[in-house]
Give the backbone structure.
Amino acid sequence: MPSNVEIKATVRDMEHLMQRAQQLSGSDGTVIRQQDTFFTVQKGRLKLRNFMDGKGQLIFYERPDMDGPKLSNYSISPTSDPEGLTKVLQDALGMVGQVTKERHLFMVGQTRVHVDTVQDLGHFMELEVVMKEGQSTEEGVSIAHKLMEELGVKNEDLIEGAYMDLLLDKQRTQNGHK
């Protein structure tokens, strides 16, 4: 199963982060609009990513919910019918919720840098150090820490969990259940 080392953080200065990501990647990045639908599963997380262009991906992943760099194991299968597959999975498994975002993707070495604007949540960034065959988790963590520093991401900005968790927490808080 492929893996990557990930971090996720809140963004304090979107303009600065975008500038640094552009400088480090040597590109303007790629804009991707996505809607992720999360389904009820026994272990890990299962989501259907709709790219809003008739294409999508079914993604299963497992990773610990903690801040800082963490190893994530995942499997991905493409689909040319994300709406139909979402309906089938929702009927079969039940839906946890949906996350809609605009993502700016930058490649810095073996790392995917995501600068995200998440509907109803705000601005975030993710690093995904795509692990190479035989590469240790420690190497991935080291790459993530170095890139965090180069991007100006502070330890206190790191968050745990997925955007879906943050949205569910926000809903519970708004409903007085936290």
Notes: The chain is about 30% helix and 40% strand. The mean pLDDT is 95. Helices lie at 14-25, 82-93, 137-151, 163-174.
